[in-house]
Design goal:
It is built from 16 helices and 59 strands. The chain is α+β, with helices and mostly antiparallel strands. Helix 5 packs parallel to helix 6. About 60% of the residues are buried. Belongs to the peptidase S8 family.
Length: about 1100
């Protein structure tokens, strides 16, 4: 019944530690010290939190949001200043808690301005390819009696097309503002109120969504609100409720706020709920995704935008919850236009430059294509430098045409055009991106079709007739009814078949607020936007029609009628049926969805990968006809998506992903025909044999549609299926070998290099630490001066539940511990350079869920960041928020890049892929804190002789890494607290001791004995516990304390290939250690001690204790 009811829980009692759910607090997009806590039914959440924090008088916090209804009982809050996760996990009567993540606001793609006309044009062509017009004509359905909730930026409900008011009796009948006007990424304090009014956001996103669902812009005479074209939403008689989760800036919100909006909408009785929020691929384990599953299971249908990251290629879909409809976008039929480019007599729509759009009607253009081969070569830098400008002829007075690419923005391209005397700047691109342009020159973006005409003429040495027209017209869209280029592509990171279905989202005309119109330079509050944010309310509107005519049939019923009856479409310009990973079940068809008498469940089949595919699947065919029906089954194989290239581990993008008519599965039915009595059902068993790819590293996405035809009418039900050929768990997460990434990103890194050192192209873009900020490859035993910074690249090819960069101290002494760390491993602190923003950000600890990268920045998915390591690291065993990183001491180190494998459990160290750098020597770091100078002879080390910047291994595959399996296995650690000794002072000097690998340690002086693998009791009563030690690798933990902090006792084993001199932390006689089975070292001083109870850190991640190379022990005080 509550949010947490959809996941498995252990019983909890007051004051017990509650379960942590979802992303760890250190994930890159989490809000600092911000948590959502779930409580049992009937618990007063605010009182419980208040009572809890009364125990911590120095802690200040503020409530963000809270919900208590039949679906959830939770509150979220932000702790101000230093915070610890233990302060959250111990709240009485709490069931579980989650960190709060930031979700980006959706960013629609905007098109040209339209003016109000004295026109009676009434265009419903948008509804002609989705069956909506037929449903209206034959059944008179307009969404009457359906309650639709919009969780978004709020609504400008004074718009006459949206009813002109707010409250009972109006079209917008209710809702709530969960955040207030001033909420944005820089101010996450919420100020809720009962009014979801929005006349301050620049795009008026929620108002545009509202118009698509239920707008009625017919016969409007109110001055300033007369549309260019009259239109209606899909379900104009539906009642709207608005739940505002963005402030006026509308740049981001929190997963707690989204969850609250969803629960409030469900609690208010919404039949259908729209959520168009960005964010890119993720896992369905955060509060908003759990909320989606909860309310859907209760019958409230949630529609979520799949995302606008189609430019990034496969695995970019953002809505992955099984409990929601992830909606893809299809292009509209036509759009009204006040501006077009007339090429050889045909009109093509244009998108004006935001900076300069001054053209006159009838103006002619002398077209000059800057690089006629730019589209063929997929150039990213066409026009990005003056040197690249076409100099074959005079550019003065020309309209220069450029291909857009990530090498630079439209401002730079158009600025270069102005600099060479051009009079117009024209941009084309396969993806509609919108255009900033440059104030120095007027410009516009043209469609793919217009670009094809211009390029064809240019290659034939023909100058096309090109004229600007401001005449009002309706422009046909040649890609109508096919998937929009920007629409995000599946599958989900766990290979769930997403998106589910598609609606019209490419170039949709709808309502916006007067403020948004003014901010965009529009004369009337209507705009043409594109995005899955538009396709989602369109699809929701179709669901409203289904509910109106069929009544309450539950989530799975509506999903099946939508998906069984969707239209399978082809890839534009080909005869190939598009992949279900791209279009889901296809484009919605309202008419067949409300008239079909056959239902097939499940409505889609996720086949996973070859290693995990089931032996067979069962589909159930329901016959709702009044007569017996004979059904026949067949298969339509869809195009196979090829997101990888042999020998290249990085995910390809929109341009480089190929779709081919091969790699199809073999499919067998238990029966290809079946007779089903009236009002009865029958089961059919389906077996799939996946295709075998040519190479193991290709991972093609295959798929298609099971068609179920009947002998009564021509309505065929279909079920999409998709899977991956190969073992997805073996797919590399961090990219270490990608020529495509180097070509599409690495060669541009010269413009991105930090510290103002421009013009440097890296020799490699492989995951790893580089010797400096100019990307000098790191070799064994190289010196890295952290005072000057060193570049780190960590391009991620596949979204992972957890990734982290670990710094391992390799010195056989206590220097790292004395610097303030609890073990010899720490989480790297990074600055990161954002190419798109052109600036540095404090990245903090690199740990948590990480989203896959792309060649260049998309709407949510981004190009690899360039990280800079400046010698700071975070203690691996502490809650990281509210603390500060520690400046590491000089010494010998390596860096490891840990990433959870696909399907992996981030709490299991065996489920990680690890990439390890060569060992290197840090200089410019902190001076080691020790009473005797360290004398380790690093230069003679021969460990890690590989010449490649990094080597990849999987946890458990080598003796070096496999020692992490022993973490947490001793009885000391596998408890809720650890008792260790705390040294009160250091006065007496002990003598030297001799250690023989795997046997014993005997100290002289004041007299104490330690046996490796047992306990050592000193004369003053201190105890050091160490696990068993073996020759060559020491697979245990040593735990002790020094001063007020935690101290890791070194255990000496065979260290073949490593030669060093070791100094005791608290002085004593000089000592040396040598390669082999024995060594001497100065024993630490032991005097009067006290016993301290050290709480176990519940931080997720046994993988944190790494770097047990060369037979050294790395102790970690935490639980898995």
């Amino acid at each position: 019944m509550q949010l947490i009811s959809v996941i498995s829980l252990v019983a909890t009692v007051a004051n017990a530690v509650s379960l942590q759910v979802g992303t760890p607090a250190t994930a890159p997009d989490t809000l600092a010290c911000t948590y959502l806590v779930n409580f049992a039914d009937g618990v007063d959440t605010l009182s419980s939190i208040e009572s809890h924090f009364a125990q911590f008088p120095d802690v200040t916090y503020s409530i963000r949001t809270h919900v208590s209804n039949q679906y959830a009982n939770f509150a979220s809050f932000q702790i101000h200043g230093t915070c610890y996760e233990s302060q959250v996990s111990s709240i009485a009567s709490s069931i579980s808690y989650s960190t709060v993540r930031s979700r980006k606001a959706p960013k629609p793609i905007k098109f040209g301005a339209l003016t109000s006309r004295d026109s009676t044009v009434y265009s419903e062509d948008i509804h002609s390819i989705t069956g909506v017009n037929e449903v209206r004509e034959k059944y008179g359905a307009f969404g009457r009696g359906i309650q639709a909730a919009i969780v978004d930026t709020g609504i400008y409900y004074l718009h006459p097309a949206l009813g002109g008011g707010f409250g009972p009796g109006f079209k917008v009948a209710g809702g709530y503002d969960l955040v207030g006007d001033n909420y944005y990424s820089g101010n996450t304090t919420t100020v809720p109120d009962p009014d979801p009014f929005d006349n301050c956001s620049a795009e008026s996103h929620g108002t545009h969504v509202a118009g698509i669902i239920a707008g009625n812009a017919t016969d409007i005479t109110v001055p300033g609100f007369v549309p260019a074209v009259q239109f209606t939403g899909v379900a104009p008689q539906a009642t709207l409720y608005a739940y505002r989760i963005f402030g006026c800036d509308a740049d981001s919100t929190g997963t707690d706020v989204i969850a609250a909006g969803l629960y409030l909408a469900a609690g208010d009785g919404a039949d259908v709920i729209n959520l168009s929020v960005g964010g890119g691929p993720t896992f369905a384990e955060d509060p908003d995704q759990i909320a989606a599953a909860t309310i859907s299971a209760a019958g409230h249908l949630l529609f979520q935008a799949a995302g606008n990251d189609g430019g990034s290629g496969p695995y970019s879909v953002g809505s992955t919850s099984p409990g929601s409809f992830a909606v893809a976008s299809f292009d509209n039929v036509e759009i009204p236009s006040d501006a077009s480019l007339i090429l050889d007599g045909a009109a093509y729509p244009i998108t004006f430059s935001i900076s300069n759009s001054i053209f006159t009607d009838g103006e002619t253009f002398d077209i000059l294509v800057n690089d006629i081969m730019a589209n063929d070569t997929q150039s990213l830098t066409d026009g990005c430098s003056l040197a690249s400008i076409n100099n074959s002829t005079s550019t003065v007075g020309k309209a220069l045409v450029f291909r857009y690419g990530s090498g630079c923005g439209t401002s730079k391209r158009c600025g270069n055009a102005a600099a060479v005397g051009a009079t117009a700047c024209i941009i084309y691109n396969l993806l509609p991106t919108g255009m900033t342009g440059n104030v120095l020159i007027p410009g516009f973006e043209i469609t793919t079709e217009a670009a094809a005409v211009i390029l064809s003429d240019a290659k034939a040495d023909i100058t096309p007739s090109a004229v600007f027209s401001s005449a009002s017209s309706s422009v046909f869209i040649s890609t109508a009814g096919t998937v929009s280029a920007f629409s995000s592509v599946g599958l989900s990171p766990d290979l769930l078949l997403k998106p589910d279905v598609g609606g019209i989202g490419g170039q949709v005309y709808s309502t916006i607020s007067p403020h948004a119109a003014e901010s965009q330079g529009l004369s009337i509050p209507y705009a043409i936007y594109s995005g899955t944010s538009m396709a989602t309310p369109y699809t929701l509107g179709v669901a409203a029609l289904i509910l109106e005519l069929r009544g309450s049939i539950g989530f799975e019923g509506v999903r099946a009628f939508l998906k069984n009856n969707a239209q399978q479409t082809k890839i534009y310009g080909t005869d190939l049926i598009n992949s279900p990973a791209v279009q889901g079940a296809g484009l919605v068809n309202a008419y067949t969805a409300v008239t079909a008498n056959t239902l097939v469940l499940p409505s889609s089949i996720s086949l996973n990968d070859t290693a995990n595919i089931k032996n067979s699947y069962t589909i159930t065919i329901y016959n709702n006809y009044a007569v017996d029906v004979v059904y026949s089954l067949s298969v339509n194989n869809a195009a196979t998506a090829n997101p990888y290239i042999h020998g290249d581990d990085f995910t390809q993008d929109y341009y480089s992903t190929t779709y081919t008519d091969d790699s199809h599965p073999t499919i067998q039915f238990s029966a290809s025909t079946v007779a089903i009595p009236a009002k009865a059902s029958a089961d059919i068993t389906v077996s799939f044999t996946p295709p075998t790819p040519t190479y193991d590293d290709l991972y093609p996405i295959y798929g298609g549609y099971i068609n179920v035809a009947n002998n009564q009418d021509n309505i065929t039900a279909s079920v999409p299926f998709a899977g991956v050929a190969g073992s997805w768990a073996d797919k590399s997460i961090f990219s270490v070998d990608s020529a495509s990434l180097y070509a599409n990103f690495g060669e541009l890194a010269a413009d991105y290099t930090p510290y103002g050192i421009f013009g440097v192209v890296p020799n490699s873009v492989s995951t790893g630490l580089y010797a400096d900020v100019t990307f000098t490859p790191l070799v064994v035993n190289q010196t890295v001066d952290v005072s000057s910074g060193a570049a780190i690249l960590a391009p991620i090819a596949a979204t992972t539940r957890k990734a982290q960069i670990i710094l391992n101290y390799l010195g056989n002494d206590g220097v790292f511990i004395d610097a303030g760390f609890s073990s010899n491993s720490a989480i790297v602190d990074v600055l990161y350079y954002s190419p798109s923003a052109g600036t540095f950000y404090e990245g903090g600890p690199f740990t948590g869920e990480w989203q896959r990268n792309a060649f260049s920045d998309d709407q949510s998915i981004v190009a690899p960041y360039i990280f800079v390591f400046e010698g700071n690291a975070w203690d691996i065993n502490n809650n990281l928020w509210g603390l500060n990183p520690i400046f590491v001491p000089n010494g010998l180190y390596n860096i490891q890049f840990w990433a959870t494998k696909n399907f992996g459990d981030p709490n299991n160290p065996d489920n990680y892929q690890v990439t390890t750098s060569p060992q290197f020597l840090i200089v410019g770091g902190a001076t080691p804190i020790t009473t005797t100078s360290p004398t380790s002879s690093y230069s003679t080390s021969t460990v890690g002789t590989t010449s490649h910047p990094t080597t990849s291994v999987e946890v458990g595959t080598t003796a070096e890494v496999s020692t992490t399996e022993d973490i947490g296995t001793t009885s000391d650690i596998a408890t809720e607290s650890l008792t260790a000794t705390t040294k009160a002072s250091a006065t007496a000097s002990l003598g030297s001791s001799t250690a023989t690998s795997g046997t014993s340690v005997t100290t002289s002086g004041s007299g104490s004995t330690a046996t490796s693998g047992g306990t050592s009791t000193t004369s003053s009563g201190s105890t050091v516990t160490s696990g068993s030690a073996g020759t060559g690798t020491t697979s245990s933990l040593s735990i002790a304390t020094s001063g007020s902090g935690t101290y890791t006792a070194p255990t000496v084993g065979s260290t073949t290939g490593y030669i060093a001199t070791y100094s005791a932390p608290n002085a004593g006689s000089a000592s040396t250690s040598s390669s082999g089975s024995s060594a001497t070292y100065a024993a630490p001083t032991a005097v009067t001690s006290t016993t301290t109870t050290i709480p176990v850190n519940l931080y997720n991640g046994a993988q944190s204790a790494v770097g047990v190379a060369f037979g050294l022990i790395v102790a970690a005080v935490f639980m898995i």
